[in-house]
Amino acid sequence: MEFNAENVIVRTRKLRDEFGSTKALAEASGCSRAMVNNYCSPAYHKLHKVAKVTWERYFGAWDYTVKDTEPATEAPMVDDIVEGATVETPTVEQTEVPAKPAAKSKIIIEVPSLEQLEETLASFGFRLEFIPR
Fold it and tell me: Residue 18 CA to chain centroid, in angstroms?
């Protein structure tokens, strides 16, 4: 199955149906409910391009299986449900998200003289030291 907007909608809706609700899929995948709703919405895909890497981060590998090409079936009617049957909850494999590198902090201090710079730095707990080369 090719990765495109229509197939993303189909696959995400199938996952949502397998988990029983948007909330259950969001909790299992680690993303927000709004994100699941967006991936199921054709209107969202008209305005935004979904990256395959992002989809795979939350919902697992985008594999090309025969199961994905099967036509969607309707949900069973309440009368068709067998009493005493157990439902297994499918799991979504979690992929590790690489940690973002820590941003470098910058402090800009503007003072009119060197003496005031030393006083200002001392108030923050820093000191200014000149080292000859």
Answer: 19
Q: pLDDT tens for the chain, 133 residues: list them.
A: 788 888 888 988 898 898 888 888 888 888 888 888 888 888 888 888 888 888 888 888 887 554 544 555 555 555 555 566 666 666 666 666 666 667 777 767 788 887 888 888 888 788 777 788 7
* Residue 13 domain-assigned (yes or no): yes
User: Which domain range does residue 18 map to?
Assistant: 5-78
For residues 20 and 35, give the distance between their C-alpha atoms in angstroms, rounded to a whole number.
16
Q: Is residue 52 part of a domain?
A: yes
- 107 in a domain, yes or no? no
pTM assigned to the model: 0.46
Q: How many domains does the chain have?
A: 1
Element containing residue 123 per DSSP (H, E): helix 114-124
